[in-house]
Design a protein that fits this description.
The protein is an alpha/beta fold and 199 residues long. The protein contains five helices and seven strands. The protein has one domain: 3-Layer(aba) Sandwich (Rossmann fold), CATH 3.40.50.
Length: 199
């Protein structure tokens, strides 16, 4: 799979605008500023394919990227307080509509900031994925910001903080240093192969 061949496909602000999925889709979900765009750029070996912002709450659309017949869906970040009620409702309609739709959704990479306990919104999202039997893996972002000891401590605590933690595939990742990127790419390649998108 040639990750360098990735291209921006489309951006949608309302669920009603999103066309039906024909190819396998992999979604990236997480709270505002957890590092979704940075992670996507790292996976695709691009500096700025996915727009990165230091201001949380900037991604207010679902942005689609395509590589070798597989689509990546960058979902807007949740949990940003300084957003109007109507904007929060639009976000909920967009993301819930996407996740509940009859799409060819192969996997959700659920991003959680490794440095902190999962937020209430993170837990709610993970429970939603479990309850609706949506296949997912948890990606712990910003791993490079922690020492080895801190990583070990957070790892142990996550076993009690995350629902069904022992059954979840958990990847420690860093968009900065590249930790976990090969593992994420391997999962994506496996999905592509299963969906007949690559030879």
């Amino acid at each position: 799979m040639n990750f360098n061949k990735a291209r921006f496909s489309a951006s949608y602000g309302l669920f009603s605008q999103i066309p039906k999925s024909e190819k396998a889709e992999i979604a990236f979900s997480g709270r505002s500023n957890v590092g979704k765009s940075s992670l996507i750029n790292k996976i695709l070996s691009r500096k700025a394919l996915a727009r990165v912002s230091s201001s949380p709450g900037k991604t207010v659309t679902i942005n689609f990227y395509e590589v070798d017949g597989v689509y990546f869906a960058d979902l807007p970040g949740y949990g940003y307080a300084k957003v109007s009620k109507s904007e929060k409702q639009r976000w909920a309609g967009l993301v819930e509509g996407y996740l509940a739709d009859d799409r060819n959704l192969a996997l959700v990479f659920q991003l959680v900031d490794f440095r902190h306990p999962p937020t209430a919104d993170d837990i709610m999202m993970i429970n939603y994925l479990i309850d609706n039997e949506v296949p997912f893996a948890v990606v712990l972002t910003k791993a490079d910001k922690l020492t080895k000891n801190q990583r070990r401590e957070r790892r142990e605590k996550l076993m009690t903080e995350l629902p069904c933690a022992e059954d979840i595939h958990i990847i420690e990742a860093s968009a900065e240093k590249g930790d976990g990127i090969d593992e994420i790419r391997a999962i994506i390649e496996e999905i592509a192969a299963e969906n007949g998108e690559t030879q």
